[in-house]
């Protein structure tokens, strides 16, 4: 399972695997990052999607099923 966090970055929004430094993806908008993270998590067998706000605090957490 591959939990991912959507966090603000210098150039848009980043999708980061839990425990990793480097982003799996970078997008212009938070909505795009959430969709990309959902795709990655589903492909990796499911897991948690944690969405952070612009200030870095956790706004929401979603459980994503495999191949959803």
How does this model look, in words?
The chain has one helix at residues 30-43, and strands at residues 4-9, 12-17, 23-27, 47-52, 58-64. The protein is α+β, with helices and mostly antiparallel strands and 68 residues long. Strand 1 (4-9) and strand 2 form a beta hairpin. The protein starts with a strand and ends with a strand. A 5-stranded mixed beta sheet has the order 3-2-1-4-5, with helices on one face.
Describe what is shown at a glance.
The chain contains one helix and five strands; from the N terminus they run E-E-E-H-E-E.
List its salient traits.
alpha+beta, five-stranded mixed β-sheet
What's the arrangement of strands in the largest beta sheet? 3-2-1-4-5
Strand content: 35-45%
Radius of gyration computed on alpha carbons: 11 Å
Structural class: alpha+beta
The low-confidence parts are none
Largest sheet: 5 strands, mixed
What's the SSE blueprint?
Layout: E1 4-9, E2 12-17, E3 23-27, H1 30-43, E4 47-52, E5 58-64
Parallel strand pairs: 1-4
Antiparallel strand pairs: 1-2, 2-3, 4-5
């Amino acid at each position: 399972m591959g939990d991912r966090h959507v966090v603000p970055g210098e150039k848009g929004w980043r999708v980061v695997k839990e425990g990793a430094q480097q982003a799996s993806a970078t997008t212009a908008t938070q909505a795009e990052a959430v969709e990309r993270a959902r795709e990655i998590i589903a492909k990796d067998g499911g897991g948690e999607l944690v969405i952070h706000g612009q200030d870095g605090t956790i706004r929401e957490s979603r459980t994503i099923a495999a191949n959803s």
